[in-house]
Known about the structure:
Elements: H1 3-24, H2 40-52, H3 57-73, H4 79-104, H5 107-117, E1 123-128, E2 131-135, E3 143-149, E4 152-156, E5 166-173, E6 176-180, E7 185-194, E8 197-200, E9 211-220, E10 223-226
Parallel strand pairs: 1-3, 2-4, 3-5, 4-6, 5-9, 6-10, 7-9, 8-10
Helix pairs in contact: 2-3, 3-4
Amino acid sequence: MKKSTKIVGGIALIAVAVLFTLKAFDIFDFDVFFKGWWTLFIIVPSIVGIINDRDKTGGCIGLSVGIMLLLAARDIINYSMLWKLAVPVALVFLGIKLIIGGVRGNKGYNVEAQMRRDGKPLKSGFSSFSATKLNYAGEEFNGAELNAVFGGIDCDLRGAIITGDCVINATAIFGGIDIFVPDNINVQLSSNSMFGGVGDKRPYKTNNNQFTLYVNATGLFGGVDVK
């Protein structure tokens, strides 16, 4: 668990304890199952995602949707207005992300384009309603396309032969992808996630190695983790 996640969780538990204490002394009254309480299952994970994820887009969209659902549940706005606002809000966040991405550029896509020009094929992995394990030990690795739909993929690069920058395009839809990388390469993550998460969970991270793995990750109710 990341340090920031522990801090958020600790603050939340302390806040709940304080509320229960105030209620016990009749200083402050509150209902645990307040109107719209279920929206916290969207709001809280979205806040954690904003804090933890390198790409904040999915977390911001989730938080906005959660807040609008809470307002609708409490009759501050009506549900018909909610659905009218949800699409524009999502499009605004995605538009901002595209603008920022266009300004900054994405070297991962440049690396992939160069690989294709050089005739270096991308390996592929697909999982649907199943678990797939890919181990490239002893194989030359330049890049891969990984897609998990209601399934999971473990991609192990720890024994792969990596002689240059490489790229992985990973898409997880109601599924999960774990990418295990060796210690002697850098990792750069770029993600487009909505109600999903992308994270670098390596215990030791360095950025002074010779080669870099670029991970372009998309999570839709799914996750992509580098380990």
